[in-house]
Amino acid sequence: MVHSTIELLLLLLLLLVYFVHGNEYYDKNIEGMCNFYKGNWVYDQSYPLYDISKCPFIEKEFDCLNNGRPDHYFLKYRWQPISCNLPRFSGGEMLSKLKGKNIMFVGDSLSLNEWQSLTCMLHVSLPNAKYTSIRTGGLSTFTFPEYKVKLMFSRNAFLVDMVNTSNGTILKLNSIQAGNLWKGIDVLIFNTWHWWLHTGRKQPGRKKIVVLSCGLILL
To answer: Which residues, including other chains, have CB under 8 Å from residue 151's CB and lie 6 or more apart?
Structure first.
């Protein structure tokens, strides 16, 4: 799960690189554009980008090393596109380019892990920068006031609305009232992991999910 989370976070950072730098990293040799997604994982002794012990707000469930993971090699890899070089992560440059923007992760624990990893990368890169961290219900907001940048995490495992009825809990496939939180957000990162998990014996509580025309009912 840790490795897949690192890959997902990397894809997010690739999107942010493109969002921040625009066409600065176009590769003229490949149809005028660099393909960030075609490349290889390469070992880099200078990694990881942050020491987890210097991130005071990381949740203990996501602290692999303190939880007993013996190897560190998985932290030493970075993504290398075939046709171009990505700039090394710079927290200060990222926040400056994203000044005044709002970024929101929407999903389950994978999104929480990605959100925490990015906030840790930024905090360790700029340890003296003031920040606030607030949790209200299922919404967590990490803010860098100086840059007016908000990094948010909205816990919403199925993305669509979940309601209780006399027939049980229903996932309303045609309703996303929770999506009101997404309005005005500059960058949205969704995670649909739960939609691929709940089949056969992996269904939560061994409940059966029945597809209906109006939604899914957890029986």
So the answer is: 103, 104, 105, 115, 118, 119, 122, 141, 142, 143
**Rg, Å, the chain Cα set:** 19
CB 126 within 8 Å of CB 92: yes
Distance CA 38, CA 149 (A): 30
What is the pLDDT confidence band of residue 215, given thresholds at 50, 70 and 90? very low
Q: What is the pLDDT of residue 211?
A: 41
**H helix or E strand, kind and range, residue 13:** helix 2-21
Element (H, E) at 77: strand 77-81
Residue 154 backbone dihedrals phi, psi, to 5 degrees: -110, 115
Helices (H) and strands (E) in the chain, counts: 4, 11
Are the beta carbons of 21 and 83 closer than 8 angstroms?
Answer: no
**Which tokens go with 13?**
């950072």
> Which amino acid is residue 171, in one-letter code?
L
Summary mean pLDDT of the chain? 79
Q: What is the maximal distance between C-alpha atoms in the chain?
A: 61
CA dihedral 91, 106, 184, 177 (to 10 degrees): -170
Which residue did the predictor score with more confidence, 212 or 67?
Answer: 67
Q: Which two tokens stand for residue 44?
A: 């880099």
Burial class for 192, CB neighbours closer than 10 Å (0-12, 13-18, 19+): middle
Question: What tokens does 29 get?
Answer: 């040799």
